[in-house]
Amino acid sequence: MNILYSELAEKDIDDLFYVITEEYKSPLTAARYVQGIYNEINKLSTQAAIHKIETSPFYRQYGFAVRRVNYKKMAVLYAIVEDYVSESFVWIYRIIAASLIIN
Hints:
Helices cover 37% and strands 25% of the residues.
């Protein structure tokens, strides 16, 4: 399954990289951390359906079939989009601090 990113998700990754690089002065850590997130996201191309659909109200802002996978202290919010014309894909909505999610 292909993986597509929303503009917000791309911005989330850029912002995370910037904060770790500039504010914490750790560019190598930033690169490793962001690569770890990408590695976790890439697993979704074959394992997206194993994560449960989230039902708490917080997730409704992204739709009704939102799933979540964590990488360290970050949460990747995504959905499996069933496209009946072509191929289904994984849509990455956001990559946010897991502590920001209200259950």
